[in-house]
Amino acid sequence: MIAETVCSAVAAAGLGIAAVTAYRKRFLAAARIAAYSLVPLGLVMTGVVDWLADTAFSPTAWAGFGVLGASWLLFASTRAVERRRGGSRKERKEARAAARSDAVAPTASAPSLGPGSRQSTRPATAPKAEAGDDFSDIEAILKKHGI
Question: The pTM is what?
């Protein structure tokens, strides 16, 4: 009974403030204030306030909220662990199978690159002049950026 009276008073006060705001030629703000002030009145008229009052003083309802909270915590923690591991069990199994396949396409009969030997086209030792040029380029870049 008290909740309905308080909500009705809040709605009436909000509509009064909206009327004063509209008198000051701020119609958009007045419409917004009127909309906010009608919410408590609508909640009283639909019975939501009675339901909330009955729920607020019911130990069974609070136990139900506790169970819902526990289920949400379990769900959130399992999702966090799943993301940390890298997906679901099925996805991890497929990733391991793909890693074992030696990176050969399923329809290929042999690896696309043979075990051939790589021969280096560069000489084994680089001349000293080229190494100095490389460092001078780096020094120029660092000086350009003020380092």
Answer: 0.42
